[in-house]
Amino acid sequence: MQTLALKSPGRNARAARVRLCDLDELPVGLGRAFVVAGRTVAVFRTRDGNVFATANACPHKAGPLADGMLVGHQVVCPMHAFRFTADSGECDQPNVCAVTTYLVEVEGTAVFLTLPAA
Amino acid sequence: MTTRQKLVVIGNGMAGARLVEDVLALDCDRFEVVMFGDEPYGNYNRILLSNVLNGTQDPKEIFLNPLAWYEENNVTLHAGKKVTRIDREQRVVYADGVEQPYDVLVLATGSKPFVPPVPGTTLHGVFVFRTLDDCRNIADYAKGKSNAVVIGGGLLGLEAAKGLMTHDLASVTVVEMAPWLMSVQLDEAGGKVLGQTIEKLGLKALTKTSTAEIQGHTHVTGVKFADGSTVPADIVVISAGIRPNIDLAKECGLACERAIVVDDQMRTSDGHVFGVGECVQHRGMVYGLVAPLWEQTKVLAEVLTGTAPEKVYTGSKIATKLKVMGVELASMGRIGDLKDTDEVVQYSEPARQVYWKAIVRDGKLSAACLLGDLGPADNLMELFKNDAPVPERRLEIFFTAGSAKKDVSLADLPDSHQICDCNGVSKGTICTAIKAGKCTVPSVGKATRAGTGCGSCKGLVKGLIEAVAGAVKADPSEGWYVPAVPMDKPTLVAEVRKRGLKSVSEVFRELGTGVDEKSKMGLASLLKSLWNDEYVDERDARYVNDRVHANIQKDGTFSVIPRMYGGVTSADDLIKIGVVAKKYDVPMVKVTGGQRIDLLGVKKDDLPKMWADLGMPSGYAYTKALRTVKTCVGSEFCRYGTNDSTALGIALEKRYQGFEFPAKVKLGVSGCPRNCAEATVKDVGVIATEGGEWEVSVGGAAGASVRKTDVLCRVKTQAEALTVIGRFLIYYRDNAKWLERTYDFVPRVGLDTIKRVILENATGLWEYFDREVEATIAAYRDPWLERERPVYAGQFEDAKTVALPMLS
Ligand SMILES: Cc1cc2nc3c(=O)[nH]c(=O)nc-3n(C[C@H](O)[C@H](O)[C@H](O)COP(=O)(O)OP(=O)(O)OC[C@H]3O[C@@H](n4cnc5c(N)ncnc54)[C@H](O)[C@@H]3O)c2cc1C
Ligand code: SF4
Ligand code: FES
Hints:
heterodimer; A: about 120 residues; mainly beta; three-stranded antiparallel sheet; 9 strands; B: about 800 residues; alpha/beta; Enolase-like, domain 1; five-stranded parallel sheet; 24 helices; binds flavin-adenine dinucleotide; binds iron/sulfur cluster; iron-sulfur (chain B)
């Protein structure tokens, strides 16, 4: 089993890993929003079978990324069409910061999300 | 090469850098060039700073010459170094650790903003607007602030104010000492019109107001005026004029008045020292715009390189346009200098906030200002620039030769005609670049600089590209239906049919060169119209609005619009709408411009429940489809109505609801020529005539573009109207580019062609059109019925809550 490295080294909290849903609860080619431990996370399932997750609020003006469209492994924010790359969270526009990304894993038919320690 | 002369330029702004470019273009071996620039950058386009401030351009985009350019051209640039002393005896300039001898010295130090001597200008939050750093600092500081004050209501102050408005401030106030805004360019009446326009944009203007003090302890908190009144302010931008940078020149003893005095060859009182740009005074004039300095650098470069040693500069005619969005303003010459013998020609149309004024002196145009509508601007500019005699009938200054002639005349203009006034680029230069394969506005800009100044000539550049490249080589991607599939619409349709491609991902797989979301949406629309029932509907090719059948709003909520055919509803339905709005706590209930009731701010989870509770069909407020049919009261109730516009409107909406098009489509039907339904600015408009017929017209719009419809035909009955309109709609659906509204489509295809196809059956497609209408009606599924059975998991769910596991 895999956990993410702790983000704040000073604190000794643990990353949490949760079972999100079954794979077929994620629509192909689209995103879906989940609330986990108070955070809203957007989880995407690409047409080529990858699953990834980002914070659901666009760093630009908080657009709901789960409602965006996927273009390859990028999500396009539904508000002003800024694009964010799935794994790095990087934005294609200058001066817009990256969106937080989360680790998601598919085991069998189950989808797991790892939240770093708060 | 030790024989090369040393050319030293102080100032790396618009004039300094341009001079060096001009010199290198004429003779790249003559000089060893060294430049000093106070700012730590290469050279950028200062006039685009307003765009950087209002966020429409990235700082990166406004650089003219990046640092690499200097290296490539063997120009030594001391960026971020200020020259502090000139020794004219020894011919050496000094700057922070650098000692640079010269043979020829050019001063291009520009100017600095004038800061009025009032208390408080050094507080945090008080800015001037001149450099890239100023822009950045203003933008950073404006975050989270609510009240801004701009001191100075001139050209620049207004641009600053408009720029600040894009930073989510609650209020932006412009303070002007003169009795009206832009007092240099406008007369009183013009200033008033501008004031009204500005206020419509949400800016406040205080004229006849002079600033006494900027208040605050460490940070600015307010501005106090001479009459004792105050306004709160958390950020202040001072734009009260400019002063030429002449300290350096004065200290080394060069002749200076208001600015550094130069002769017709840009020479100062020292034969080895020259000056260009805002820091110089030539024949008594100091210019604050770029066009004159392009003329100056050109002459100076020819003089310095010996290419045309006798060349002289005799002064410039100044003309400007205000760049900020939402204000149409052009000015030329000095409107305020009026002689007794001058003729003043004026036209005003207060309802549209249009105000035109021209001053004719000795039969020539000596000054003019145009506000609200720049139709005649190009024509006036011609007269002004060329000192041409104005028409005998003075009225024709504004009227005949104006906009109607413009399209035709572009081709007829002489090659010497100047297209880009900021950069002095002629039609001939642009056409040469186009013929050399530069077929987009940016690539022409790169090659010639045309359109890279204030940008107002981009339309003309585009026109030239169309005129010239049509015969040469057009940018192929312009004809593609969507960017990710390199085919025009007919080819794409043929391929899709031949290969039987029924889903968006199939098209991408077989024909695509990449993927983007706009192509997905465009293809989805096309395939749906081609295959009707057989179309394989992939939900990830739809934009969120089309996935949840409601329009996403800025906070991520949605809106519900019960359909009201032709704008007609009933008491029962209104009650039901009210009850539902209450039950779901709808934050705003709004009547829209399309005669419907919009329930705004609905949570995604509530959408299906609300549709069900309403039990009415819903209306499209989002998809590229038939949106609304606006109607007037018509003969049913109106005492003027000659025909039943409401009934026709309802019939049209019932028949064509759910039809998808390359762009949204709006219809309007009026019951008499008074046209209360504003049918002449719709994609299809119908107006009842006195004789009881219907006049059908197409291609209008009243959105970002305004266009009056072109009349297609007259028909006698409602049924005929339905048929003709159906044929037109299918023809448009099949032939328009993705996102091309009818107001672009109709003029592109040409009204004559449309008439031949729709009215005379020239292509023999009538039967096909009528069949398509029926097939599309038959294929229509009410999308709101998905409320019963979502098509994919989570379709109408806001966010699913997942419980955390117990921590071990
Ligand atoms: C926001 C804004 C919008 C504008 N919009 C328009 C417009 O739409 N149309 C138009 O025609 N004009 C416009 N202008 C005016 C136009 O930008 C100026 O007329 C033009 O930039 C003047 O060019 P210049 O080279 O003389 O001065 P600048 O471009 O100011 O260049 C002077 C340079 O010299 C440097 N310098 C000064 N002293 C020293 C020294 N001692 N040592 C080293 N370096 C030094 C300065 O740092 C500066 O970089 C605008 C100006 C601003 C600020
Ligand atoms: S357009 Fe004519 S019929 Fe319709 S409401 Fe106006 S006046 Fe009456
Ligand atoms: S909110 Fe995401 S792009 Fe603007």
